[in-house]
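HUMAN: I'm a chemist; might I ask for a sequence paired with its structure tokens?

ASSISTANT:
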Amino acid sequence: MKHLLPILALCVFSGACTSEKDATELLLFVTASDTSAAAGEIVYFDIEARSLDSRIDTVSVRTYDKENGPLPLFSDRPRTERYTHRLYWSVPATARDSLDVELTFRATDPAGQSRERHIAFLVRGSAAPLRELSGITLYAPASGNPDGFSLTTRQPVRTATAALGEVDFYLYADPEAPEDALPRQWRTRTDIRFAKVNRFDFAAATDRSLRAVYDASVRTDYVDDLTADDIILIGREAPLGADSVAAGDTSARAGAWGVVKIMQAYDEPGSSNDRYLLHIKYID
């Protein structure tokens, strides 16, 4: 009797039952261990079906979501008056931050009567941690030491001797600034774009958080007024001549690559030891 009351109440509010007798001929109960989980986690559903005047012919479960459409998940033919089953489900992967999935549970009897229960499930997309490079040092150009960085090799390079395509970002020495001053601007010789976003959570950065903030930020081919604790998001844009650029979409991009935090900015007497100490996280 304890299970009957919720079903009767459901019928009153939904108008799905035509009579008290019809409401009691075929009963279906579903209890979920959870209604949200991260992709790859295992959840379960306890299914109970009863036929008061016949038997349970079929029990089936299907899912529907915007990525995969309708999919069968489970099917059984118990042919008994009462049926119980615990269904384990591996939560599907998703390329989105989240995905709404509807699960439909259905029981039928030989006379063609059926009952359905629907459960709305939220899939939380999994976020991957970023790879890290620590202790990266970029020097002032006048020092003769590496003053640029290659995203391809993930190593500092000397702008004066490196090929153009190897210098993804470098320290730009303003000709009007004192020669012994640490340059406060970075530029690029490739299709890199920068966005200085100091509110970005560098410590907890994931591929999803990086892409989301980068996509929402104003990006330029330089970044200036740099100092310690600045956080700079870096991404690749469509190179000049790409189809999307030719079509007029000059903001076409390949997407976020990584994030740089300036740990220290050293502007010492002279220029031989002026440098930035960087911590870099990037999408593998």
